[in-house]
Amino acid sequence: MGNVNVHDVAAYILKKCGPMSAMKLQKLVYYCQAWSLVWEERPLFPERIEAWASGPVAPDLYREHKGQFLLKDWKERGSPKKLSGDDKETIDVVLKAYGHRNAQQLSELTHREAPWKNARNGLAPGDPGTETITHEAMSEYYSSL
Fold first, then answer.
1. pLDDT for residue 1
2. What totals of helices (H) and strands (E) does the chain contain, helices first?
3. Are 8 and 78 within 8 A, CB to CB?
4. By three-state DSSP, how is residue 91 classified?
5. Which of 53, 60, 51, 10 lies closest to 141 in space, CA to CA?
6. 130 within 8 A of 53, measured Cβ to Cβ
7. Which secondary-structure segment (H or E) carries 7?
């Protein structure tokens, strides 16, 4: 399709999984991007992901759900229809692998992984940070797993 954005991915995840915390959605979106880079050798969406204190966050997504804890759907902002079959396949596998974990577990997982750790280099645990987690960093780390 080519014009998929982070909101379309979020809309698809919420449609498949039902309501979840904003933090969990952010982590799932991150893993979808990471594994798309490994399996499809291309990003799923163009928006950047930053290494925040709570783990990887897509600021474009955050701006829309700021202040909300539980997200029910993303219909106004994104459309699952924009995703290709390959896109959905990637997301489905990620949801199978990571979807059963809660937000805290996913956050802790990202904190143990190189892409987030390296982008946070030099920051104390609670420090705000906006360093981008690069596609290269994600691709390199997750393809080695």
1. 44
2. 7, 4
3. yes
4. helix
5. 51
6. no
7. helix 6-17
pTM of the model: 0.96
* Buried b / exposed e along 8-38 (16+ C-beta atoms within 10 A): bbbbbbbeeeeebbbbbbbbbbbbbbbbbbb
Q: Which of 116, 113, 114 is nearest to 129 (CA)?
A: 116
Tokens of 119: 């982008």
Question: Which helix H or strand E contains 117, and what residues bound it?
Answer: helix 114-119
Residue carrying structure tokens 């955050």:
62
Mean pLDDT by 10 residues, the chain (145 residues): 87 97 98 98 97 97 95 92 97 98 97 97 93 98 96
Q: Residue 75 has what pLDDT? A: 86
Q: What pLDDT does residue 2 have?
A: 56
Both tokens assigned to 21: 């915390």
As a whole number of angstroms, the distance between CA 116 and CA 118 comes to 6
